[in-house]
Design brief:
This protein is an all-alpha fold and about 70 residues long. The chain is about 65% helix and about 0% strand.
Length: about 70
């Protein structure tokens, strides 16, 4: 998955709010990807969701539930 798709998931699942902004999503993507890579693996995607949960101050299960419900 590339950065555009990662940001689209956050937007489409309505994870974005005052605590988690598009800038935060971009920074999380940069943090979890390999230095020279343009795409992330599924394991890195899950790590990104954990970063979302930390930023929103909720459990990672709540983020999983939002993505699963969409």
């Amino acid at each position: 998955m590339d950065g555009k798709g990662f940001a689209k998931i956050a937007k489409d699942t309505k994870l974005l709010d005052k605590k988690l902004t598009t800038t935060d999503v971009d920074l999380a993507f940069s943090k979890i990807k390999e230095r020279t890579a343009r795409r992330i693996t599924f394991e890195q995607f899950l790590a990104g969701l954990e970063l979302f949960a930390q930023k929103k101050a909720v459990g990672v299960e709540a983020v999983y539930a939002k993505i699963g419900a969409s």
